[in-house]
Amino acid sequence: MTEDLLIRLDDHLLSWELFCFNFGEIVHLSWFQLKAIKVVEKCSGHLLAVVLMARALKRVQFDVSVWEHACYMLSLQHNKSQMVDRVLCNTLAFILGRCLDSAHECLKHCAFYMEREGRDKVDLIQEWIRHALIRKFDEGQKIVGDLVSAFLLESSENGSSVRIREEIREVSLNSLFLLQGGMGLTKTPRDEAWEEFFEIHLMNNKFFELPNTPNCPQLVKLFLQNNHFLRVIPPLFFQHMPMLQILDLSHTKIRLLPRSLYGLAQLQKLFLRSCKLFMVLPPEVGELHNLKVLDFEGTEIIRLPVEVGKLTNLTSLKMSFYGDTDDRWKDDRYYSSRIIPQNVVSNLLQLEELIIDVSPDDKRWNSNAKDIVEEVFQLDRLNTLQIYLPEVLLLNELWKNASSSSAAAAANISGMHFRFTVGSHMKRIISRVPLDVATKFGEQERYLKYVNGECFPIEIEKILGEATALFLDRRSTATSLSEFGTGTMKNLKCCVLAECDEIQAIVDTGVNRYLSLESLEYLNVYYMKNLKSMWKGKFQWGSLSCLKVLALYTCPQLTTIFTSNMIFSLRNLEELVVEDCPKIESLVVTDDPNATQQMVGFLKLKKISLLYMPRLVSIFNGLIASLNLEWMSLYDCPSLKTLYPEDVWSRNLRTITGEAKWWEELKWNDSKRLGPPNLDSIFVPIYWDKDLMTQLAEINVQHQARMQETEPSQ
């Protein structure tokens, strides 16, 4: 008998031999034999199911509960499926229910997208990475090996190619997955349709009610997120979902969870992200003993029930709390003077990820924060921490606890993904920083947001030495980033500065000549009323050499962005935005006007936007600008009456925007190298009576289409 045995579904005599061969000789021991015979009987002569079950159970030989669960799954009946399909469907449901999420998603991807003749293994793994199913190539190799070993995939060509078995693909497509997400449904599928499936996708629809008591004996994953009309879940909705492991109710209008949910003994992941009306997490949540992920980030919970401390299998806990503590909640039975009860966090010893989002308006947190900081570093496995610290001194507690904890090696901040907001402040109704920028900042692995800081404590310098992102918000005393010390910001990739009124230069080498920001990729500056220049003092070669995006908004005193000696170092700059900076006359400032005309700079610059700049008379001051420029947007720059041909020399230029009258009156400066260009075909007018940002967004869509049309075929 070989690995490539042709399995004949009508041959029942092979079942026991096949199981023994795939499980191993240990099956003949009396304990195993009794269990194995029962499993083989339940497979009803389906030889592929026999092989799959033998290989799956071989991994958990001595776990009695898994063998019993296997028999239960194989016994499930279906209204529509024939016997052969039923057995294979139940077998796959059992196996996938025990798979890691990544392996499950990779197999599902194969079922839906893999060609029948198979796929090169390397190409397949790279495709999984592109679709964010896995992160690393080594992880993909292991998953392929595991799926082949489990008999779900088969390999050929000495292991360089794999394909999914056709029987598994057919059952997966027809019996395991109900995929009706994003179809605009106003009603959910009929009750009987719920019975057949292992995984149900009903997200992004428009229904406002669910069936009362659907019978889902093998349902493992249920996705209901982004159903914005869904407000109520029937009391017995989860009554007959004994195998449910993953439930996503994010971005719905639900206020309460039904009592039947707390009877889901197998539930491992519960998502309630951004359920804005969900304000009470009841004590019954402590009954979900197998829960590993609890995510109610973006909700408005009043407090965390002490019963969460019973969820000792939790590896990820993400929570947001309601910030209004006025008298209307004082008589509520769930109200407490503490947001998080003492010793709840420290009891969750399996935690790897902890996110605590608290409104700065909530005064309860001021007395709660110190206790939580002390508890955090009792968690040996913790590798991700997001927390708001109203006082800088609490950072010192973090350092002290990290160094003194028994978990110092595992929980050392230098090896941790952290997101710290430090400093007392009031929550804003409208933030001056655009949502997309705030979102990108929040995606960074190690960030520090420092608000209303008055001094430069050593704790801030220590954190900055490890941080990949800095958000300096309404800092009142710093005159430049250089004041944060010589050893800081070496890892900084993203920096956002907003309303730091005393900052006069981003970097001042007179204060700190060692600060070069050599790793910085994104720099966004907003509402800096005293900022005069990007760089003050001697510019060191290599500084800002990784910078990709520079955006400057509303800096009324700014006069100097680039000097001629900065140009060559900014070789990776791809996008430049300057808006509402009324004193800027040219992007490049030089003592010798002829010097820039002999230079080529900004070699990777693709996009430039210059808006509301009344004194701008020159863009690059004669510099030969990027040969890769694709987009140039100009609006309300009345003094810009002439351009150099070098400003628009790029052969990739596909879009120029501006007022129609400005374009008609534009003149071209004389150039020794280039003649006046004819760019009327790529000019797109902007109209003063329509919203500027809306117009630019629409033009950008057209621009992207043009760029795709001109890309060479692969």
Summarize the structure.
With 714 residues, the protein is α/β, with parallel strands linked by helices. The chain contains 16 helices and 29 strands. Helices cover 25% and strands 17% of the residues.
What does this structure look like?
- The protein is an alpha/beta fold and 714 residues long.
- It is 25% helix and 17% strand.
- It is built from 16 helices and 29 strands.
- It has a 20-stranded parallel beta sheet. Strands 1-3-2 form a 3-stranded antiparallel beta sheet. Strands 17-19 form a two-stranded parallel sheet.
- The radius of gyration is 31 Å and the shape is globular.
- The two termini are 45 Å apart.
What is the overall pLDDT average?
84
Estimated radius of gyration:
31 Å
Helices, by number, come to 16
What characterizes the major β-sheet?
20 strands, parallel
General form = globular
Number of distinct beta strands: 29
List the helices and strands and how they pair.
Layout: H1 15-23, H2 30-42, H3 47-58, H4 64-75, H5 83-98, H6 101-113, E1 119-120, H7 121-130, H8 137-149, E2 153-156, E3 161-164, H9 166-176, E4 177-179, E5 199-201, E6 221-223, E7 246-248, E8 269-271, E9 293-301, E10 316-321, E11 353-358, H10 364-376, E12 384-389, H11 393-404, H12 408-411, E13 417-422, H13 435-442, E14 447-451, H14 458-466, E15 469-473, E16 494-498, E17 505-508, E18 522-526, E19 533-536, E20 549-553, E21 562-563, E22 575-579, E23 588-589, E24 607-611, E25 631-635, E26 642-643, E27 655-658, H15 660-665, E28 667-668, E29 683-685, H16 692-710
Parallel strand pairs: 4-5, 5-6, 6-7, 7-8, 8-9, 9-10, 10-11, 11-12, 12-13, 13-14, 14-15, 15-16, 16-18, 17-19, 18-20, 20-22, 21-23, 22-24, 24-25, 25-27, 26-28, 27-29
Antiparallel strand pairs: 1-3, 2-3
Helix pairs in contact: 1-3, 2-4, 3-5, 4-5, 5-9, 6-8, 6-9, 7-8, 10-11
